[in-house]
Predict the structure of Alpha-1,4 glucan phosphorylase.
Amino acid sequence: MAKKTVPVSVTFDKDLFKRSVLYNIKTLYRKTLEEATPQQVFQAVAYAIKDAVVDNWMRTQEEYEKQDPKTVYYLSMEFLMGRALGNNIINLQAQKEVKEALDELGLDLNVIEDQEPDAALGNGGLGRLAACFLDSLATLGYAAYGCGIRYRYGMFKQEIRDGYQVEVPDNWLVDGNPFELRRPEYAKIVKFGGYVNVHIDENGRSNFVQEGYQSVKAIPYDLPIVGYGNGIVNTLRIWDAEAVECFQLDSFDKGDYQKAVEQENLARNIVEVLYPNDNHYAGKELRLKQQYFFISASVQEAVSKYMRKHDDIRKFYEKVTFQLNDTHPTVAVAELMRILMDEYYLTWDEAWEVTTKTCAYTNHTIMSEALEKWPIELFSRLLPRVYQIIEEINRRFILKIQEMYPGNQEKIRKMAIIYDGQVKMAHLAIAAGYSVNGVARLHTEILKHQELKDFYEMMPEKFNNKTNGITQRRFLLHANPLLADWVTAHVGNDWITDLPKINKLKVFADDEKSQQEFMNIKYQNKVRLAKYILEHNGIEVDPRSIFDVQVKRLHEYKRQLLNILHVMYLYNQLKDNPDMDFYPRTFIFGAKAAAGYYNAKMTIKLINSVADVVNNDPAINGKIKVVFIENYRVSNAEIIFAAADVSEQISTASKEASGTGNMKFMLNGALTLGTMDGANVEIVEEVGKENAFIFGLSSDEVINYENNGGYDPTEIFNNDPDIRRVLMQLINGTYAPGDPDRFRTLYNSLLNTLSTAKADTYFILKDFRSYAEAQKKVEAAYRDEKGWARSAILNVACSGKFTSDRTIQEYVDDIWHLDKVVLPKK
Ligand code: CR6
């Protein structure tokens, strides 16, 4: 039974905390508790928690100074942190004390937590993965920095108006961020533009100097990353931009004046907003500026921090490693080369050795539209010195290719870093990185044998897999307190820091009492979600119905369209056959679409239009409900995962590199309905095929079709009347009264009869029947309540592999080789 772990360093002083809250309200707002607004109460509580955190933060950093462990810099354009308060309280192991203290003050922790805006500095899985990794690094006791950008506006807020997505700016810093610390003493200067001049110094050495540039000051803001119950607090360092010098209004030099204005504007624009594209490269100049801005600042800081303690920059890699989260931070390679050569006077070979022993690259997608390829003109104009260095890296890399494959032009065409007027960031990352990893086994295999085949053949030793993971602290302990307590009551609380221990639950899968308890908890979580849906959407849903959930970014390859077409198909069946035996189902969607992604936005409109018709048709007696949850984000995701019965993971096989939502559902006892794609493959391997619903083409089949020019969906259209009917309803006004052409582009994407355009590139019609069959099996399975409970419990029990603690430990063992830090007892 429940075993208690002893908090290592945290003794949480309840009375001090209470006094601190009241004091904060007084000094921050000149108010009493009774007079304070909910937001002010949140701020006061957050500052009180920060107080407790800061002590550990200082102690950790002191210890790092003493022990000098090797440090990973996780370089990422995105950190999708969500809310900090609840998570910090949990990781301080102070939940009980904080709740009691607040209770005594007449305050409700849940209400207070709801006041905090999400730190939405990311788009989707890639950004959230970075956040989970930071949690695991601190919890496992590894020295780490997250390095990113302090966007003034994070991911936009989504409003649904008349069924359409409307993007509203997310002014997440309006009330201030209580957890952040501004560190102007670590500011760095970042230079853009100008030209490179060569100066010969007195020793006859050529020095490359950038001249005529504009510069920006990068100011770091530090956020604490609290490890669970170990007293460790790491740092997420996000950079803000400021103009270098204040405006010289008295400047007589027109050129100076002009430059001052430009620098001011550059600084203002650079960190203004997160690009809302997931898995898509837009090629915007400002985006490259953002990339170089935070990378230059982070690399400069890493080097100067190292040099404060060491004297030989040639051994930099012994103490520092850079992990590139996708290709977005790849300029780090050239920036490090620049600093080593231009500022520390290393030779090319010395600098190259350090760089290639420091940088490692993670690939997160095979989608070709996501590959970053910058036009040479833009790149060299913005980053002249960095571009020179990349040219030289490219020249030498091509020599290596020629050495291995003499006379093979084809190899050079396919592998060069600079080719066809473009700088290819993935090629640079692979050539300069000491490790290249994919994010799930299947994805890594596809990289090795398809997408990056040539690179794998040339440098097989660099390639490795690191299947993604998620933190159980946020996605079970915080998100689902009922289930968390239940798990702990059954198998103890080791799972909090050692998730594989959760497999002791297996023996309860067949226990009827446990099954009932489990289903009861799921029911209560469904009630909680139903309440949220009623409050936020005005739609009433029945918590006894099957909650069938697809929440993730809206993308054609993720096939929300397949899901909603299937709902249309079911609705047709029910209309034809009102008495048919049908288990009530609530289809829940949540998804943001990139602002310029037309088909994605129209899919949102379609989902809402189907919802309007279906939810309001008395003829089907409420058997189907469709809900589109507005503004899907980390904070409401926590409520959604806890309440799900069915986890929709229905991407076209081969397209979803890993997925991480799939793991969060599993941990919360939802059954996967999915394709053999990404990490679904490994999920099914852990829990068994019989406890999931697998359908559709395999990745090999998909790739095979693709290599042979696709497939012909018209055949399916012609031969399957049910599918044809659903498709016709896209263009006959069934869901767009008065505007039958509204969904024409969606229809065309599935069935373009023009022979020139490819149709159904995501195999929706091809997989439709198999999906519908799987959905039937879901219904049958759900009717067997005990059987369902058994499978659901087994999903929880078998989720151990998918903790980000495991993923991080693998990165440490195979790539980073960090030293574990233990804080001495206080
Ligand atoms: N969009 C993948 O598509 C993966 C995450 C994290 C993604 C997704 O399958 O789980 O990364 N890729 O590895 C990119 O963002 C490029 C994602 O979140």
